[in-house]
Amino acid sequence: MNYSAPQVDAETAHLAAKLRARILTLARRAGHAGLTISEAAGLIPEHKNTSVSPRFSELVEDGALVRVLTGHSRSGAPRYAGRLDEQTGKYVRIHWARGFEPVTIKALKKARHLTHCVKIRGKSGIRVSG
What we know:
With 130 residues, this protein is an alpha+beta fold. The chain has a single domain (11-121), classed as Arc Repressor Mutant, subunit A (Orthogonal Bundle), CATH 1.10.10. It is 39% helix and 20% strand. The chain has four helices and eight strands. The chain has helices at residues 10-30, 37-43, 49-62, 105-113, and strands spanning 65-66, 69-72, 78-80, 82-84, 91-93, 96-97, 116-120, 126-129. A two-stranded antiparallel sheet has the order 1-6. 25% of the residues are buried. Mean pLDDT is 79; it is low at 115-130.
């Protein structure tokens, strides 16, 4: 998929591609706990949240990240699995690297109750508290 608009220069497109790769790596390390946009932004402090969020959308569109549909609102808008963000107090969507998404209600409930990714621990991935 081509993520760069014609007016975007090659350097910007390259930086966006590197950020997408980094987000996908974090999502894989998060495993079955999944990853939220704010968690990723906290783990990539050199990028603003406004740069991280569009990369998530691109990865979802490309099928590299998935969200779990939990229902629809009265107006028909989709509702996705999420959890409470401790910093903002808001309910935020959880994204999973393909293959790590929960396949049972029990697994989904477990992912919802994990609070946030704390830090990267070498090659062992992200330690999730909860």
